[in-house]
Amino acid sequence: MTAMTATVSPAGAAAELRTALREAGLPVGATGTDDHVQLGTLRASDARQLARLIRTGTKRTLKAARVLREICEAYGVRLPELRVRQGRITLGACRVDDAVRLARLLGASSPAPEVPDTEAVRDLLAEAFSAATGGGTLDVSVRGEAPDVVELGALDARAARRLIGALRF
User: 97 phi and psi, to 5 degrees?
Assistant: First the structure.
């Protein structure tokens, strides 16, 4: 459970959503029970307007995710779980060799052994990311059940744009 879900009641979240929808001119109800929020019925035109509002509000993040995916693919860095989630760009799990490739692209030197230790790769990538993005941080963790996989954290759109800038040069 995240801090965000631990402090928000379903009723409070529903009230906030109702208010936002009303302010956007969308007459739809929202109720909250048992950790969920239920939206009332939307007219087709209101659903289309809601979709437009969501796309407009997430435009920068979605664009940054798309560009980051394209750049990584061009460099042969596979990030199969890269997606936008809760307004942030989640990079997800990647193989150690892809993490090493990404670290090298960000200016890191190669790790010493032929088959690098995942913890060394974790540290190398975190350090390279920080240096390349001007002090930004990227959570990098080792998956215990998969010794050749590291888990990359999530970035906000600003940090993703700094990463894109670093990868372009």
Answer: -65, -35
* Phi, psi dihedral angles at 12 (to 5 degrees): -65, -40
Q: Which residues of the chain have pLDDT under 70?
A: 1-7, 111-115
pTM for the whole structure: 0.74
Helix (H) or strand (E) holding 11: helix 10-23
For tokens 């990227």, name the residue: 138
> Kind of pairing, strands 149-155 and 140-142?
antiparallel
DSSP state of 151: E
Distance CA 80, CA 94 (A): 7
Cα separation, 149 vs 169, whole angstroms: 27
CB 125 within 8 A of CB 140: yes
